[in-house]
């Protein structure tokens, strides 16, 4: 006679994964890919083929490049279980500063880019110092920093000064990605 003890381990086979016919493909992923394909087919039909043209694809990639770069940077913030609300205001501030350096001050493009990157590094390090060493949640640090001059300085210059009629190579910045 064998005794039945509670120390016996039962091995249960794993449940089959994925959708039948698509081993390893999650149903959610499959539905999202199918939705993207349906949307692309609809817009291709609605624009008589212009949606998938090389010109439109290039235009879409140019328009989403800045947002994509910012999103890649935000991945690291989100992975560390933090939230940073300063991405948009930093982009506006640094973009306005770069325009001022280039158009009003007449700085060469490499110097403008270098100084703008250093400004971004310093402001980002300031936020990071408060979060990492002072243990202040980034959700609190960002609005406090943005409550002062940096948030409103670019709006002041946009309202009171025009950059569009000045000579310089601001118009050529868009050609850098071409």
UniProtKB/TrEMBL annotation:
Segments passing through the bilayer: 25-45, 65-83, 113-133
GO cellular-component term (any): plasma membrane
Annotated compartments: Cell inner membrane
Bilayer topology term: Multi-pass membrane protein
UniProt GO MF annotations: transmembrane transporter activity
Domain of life: Bacteria
Main subcellular location of this protein, as a coarse class: membrane
Keyword terms: Cell inner membrane, Cell membrane, Membrane, Sugar transport, Transmembrane, Transmembrane helix, Transport
Function: Part of the binding-protein-dependent transport system for D-xylose. Probably responsible for the translocation of the substrate across the membrane.
Similarity field: Belongs to the binding-protein-dependent transport system permease family. AraH/RbsC subfamily.
Database matches in PANTHER family: ABC TRANSPORTER PERMEASE PROTEIN YPHD-RELATED-RELATED (PTHR32196), XYLOSE TRANSPORT SYSTEM PERMEASE PROTEIN XYLH (PTHR32196:SF32)
Name of the protein this chain belongs to: Xylose transport system permease protein XylH
Organism: Raoultella planticola (Klebsiella planticola)
